Amino acid sequence: xxxxxxxxxxxxxxxxxxxxxxxxxxxxxxxxxxxxxxxxxxxxxxxxxxxxxxxxxxxxxxxxxxxxxxxxxxxxxxxxxxxxxxxxxxxxxxxxxxxxxxxxxxxxxxxxxxxxxxxxxxxxxxxxxxxxxxxxxxxxxxxxxxxxxxxxxxxxxxxxxxxxxxxxxxxxxxxxxxxxxxxxxxxxxxxxxxxxxxxxxxxxxxxxxxxxxxxxxxxxxxxxxxxxxxxxxxxxxxxxxxxxxxxxxxxxxxxxxxxxxxxxxxxxxxxxxxxxxxxxxxxxxxxxxxxxxxxxxxxxxxxxxxxxxxxxxxxxxxxxxxxxxxxxxxxxxxxxxxxxxxxxxxxxxxxxxxxxxxxxxxxxxxxxxxxxxxxxxxxxxxxxxxxxxxxxxxxxxxxxxxxxxxxxxxxxxxxxxxxxxxxxxxxxxxxxxxxxxxxxxxxxxxxxxxxxxxxxxxxxxxxxxxxxxxxxxxxxxxxxxxxxxxxxxxxxxxxxxxxxxxxxxxxxxxxxxxxxxxxxxxxxxxxxxxxxxxxxxxxxxxxxxxxxxxxxxxxxxxxxxxxxxxxxxxxxxxxxxxxxxxxxxxxxxxxxxxxxxxxxxxxxxxxxxxxxxxxxxxxxxxxxxxxxxxxxxxxxxxxxxxxxxxxxxxxxxxxxxxxxxxxxxxxxxxxxxxxxxxxxxxxxxxxxxxxxxxxxxxxxxxxxxxxxxxxxxxxxxxxxxxxxxxxxxxxxxxxxxxxxxxxxxxxxxxxxxxxxxxxxxxxxxxxxxxxxxxxxxxxxxxxxxxxxxxxxxxxxxxxxxxxxxxxxxxxxxxxxxxxxx
Length: 821
Hints:
Layout: H1 3-16, H2 20-33, H3 38-50, H4 54-67, H5 72-85, H6 88-101, H7 106-118, H8 122-135, H9 140-152, H10 156-169, H11 174-186, H12 190-203, H13 208-220, H14 224-237, H15 242-254, H16 258-271, H17 276-288, H18 292-305, H19 310-322, H20 326-339, H21 344-356, H22 360-373, H23 382-392, H24 399-411, H25 419-425, H26 429-443, E1 462-468, H27 475-486, E2 492-498, H28 506-514, E3 517-520, H29 526-535, E4 540-543, H30 553-557, E5 563-566, E6 581-584, E7 600-603, E8 634-637, H31 646-658, E9 663-666, H32 671-683, E10 691-693, H33 700-706, E11 712-714, H34 723-730, E12 735-738, H35 747-755, E13 761-762, H36 765-777, H37 779-795, H38 801-815
Parallel strand pairs: 1-2, 1-4, 2-3, 4-5, 5-6, 6-7, 8-9, 8-11, 9-10, 11-12, 12-13
Helix pairs in contact: 1-2, 2-3, 3-4, 3-5, 4-5, 5-6, 5-7, 6-7, 7-8, 7-9, 8-9, 9-10, 9-11, 10-11, 11-12, 12-13, 13-14, 14-15, 15-16, 16-17, 17-18, 17-19, 18-19, 19-20, 19-21, 20-21, 21-22, 22-23, 27-28, 31-36
């Protein structure tokens, strides 16, 4: 035997005895003497393969086959190395080459089947496994692989037979055990699948994959706590496995442990930076934490790795929408829909962007498409939003049926609508409470570890924080600004927590100056805002948003202050236990309605709604300037179009029919509203020309002045005029309302009661029509009413901001008193 042959035999013996380093060294010595030694090159490739170094294996074995292409074993090992590299197509080619050299090579047929499975060619893989088994019918591995091919083909019965045959031949074949469990799972035989995994874990307690698969199955069964325990075991056994880290983060995410989930996704990304799904779901965790800018960055990372990843595009659209970048959010949703026309998430997000962009007609179309394609699987709150989009353009198609469906859904505990939408169609305080509770419970549970616990702070001055997204040109700021400016600074320290960036408008700057401290928290997370309020030791935190645009309920769910108050922004209960009080009056929340408010009710002695009565600097313009007839009775309603429901509009049309020549003056509206309302008027036998639509005016003073052109303001139901009613009354225009059963439907009655004009409050629709007709046809009665309104406006409590401020401060002081009894 030659010296080189002797060294090669020693290398083989060393490898058989587990002395891999020695075998490697001997092969390298051979190659120093003979660089084209095919056997040594092959053996070095085989050693690299065992060391999971596929790139090196491909290099060594490729050189060996270049020297001697007639090596079937080398062809097979090169196929294995290519499979490790993920190149299944070339692996099939090398297996075919091995079989050309050795047609009875069962292992080559088996590995060919494995490569074909990786390529998604299960039927061809099955043929290869069947051929291999004809040569080696006692190969447990071939039976197991055959079972996997059959499972991919959904031939579950035959697959189970193959796995069980493999396990009879080799009871410890882990691959067969895991394959059998996966088959039982795919066949829907969940208890059996779990038993199979339990048996596997009992036999192989240190195998991470078994715990991982069991955790995945438990997670699918929503047994999340048990799943987490198995993920923890799998993670300890395989700390470098990115998929385990990713799936463990997923169960934490589903449990609402968002910070922990975020850490898990970070771990998965550290282990595999190319794992697009980890970047995507990291974005989802950040989105739920309201860290929208960071969420967008994560989604963009996922999209750099996988540009057409629908979940990441949808997530980016969500983040952009939350950041107020609605045009970009819409474009991202459209990208998804280009890939998948019926993607429900993208359609839903597109519709919400269109609502924000004030394109309700298109939004309604998106919602309608969602409803057509999956009537029983509409996204949460989508049905209510569809109804809102339609109402925003006075599209009343199927209104009665849709409203009844939404109301029935709320009563049944379904999440069909946002509370803010429901308040427009519901005249039941009990139903509104149910809707708000569903919304709060589904989204913002009270913090497990509240930021504030213990006794009140007892500061020398009460630290009062107003939290709002509306410190800008907005009705809330318009109503409250005088109170903010005049708060008693000897008793109160007043802080503004702005959920949106500082607003440069005159009112925005006036509101900012009214606070002792104004803090823009728009770029901070909910947790950071909670920590800020705790650090400031705020005594009373007042939520001026409720469930209106820009709200941040998690700040209050975190218990940022000892006393948390729902006030002014949202006319109804928020349905959450972490709001201690709601500020109201005896009219908007009468005593018999208090059980339908989750908060404790604190009633102010006059109207709950503040006012900043601006000087009426302009005399009324001419009617002709606004397209109004000079000698006709002008009914007026400047409420938003979404508050005008078919019943109310029908009453208004009755009034126009019965008051000859009269017109109805409505607020500025989009073209779809105008055309829909004109069509509805014609359908009720009223000339469309008798509807006059106000144009936009540049200043609030111009708006207030033109109220003088109207004769009577007609209120809406079940959602009244609020700020609009105050504007009308301050301008001297009588407001006729019909008493509702909810907070939102009793605001105008509260204003009129405080003003001393109860005769303008009707108890039902028939009384509403009768009173409107009386005032429209009896000029003396209307003049007397206007005269009383002018006197009471000047002397009564409704437009007395100083009196209101004292009442409000007394309410705050009462909230801080120790509970009685």
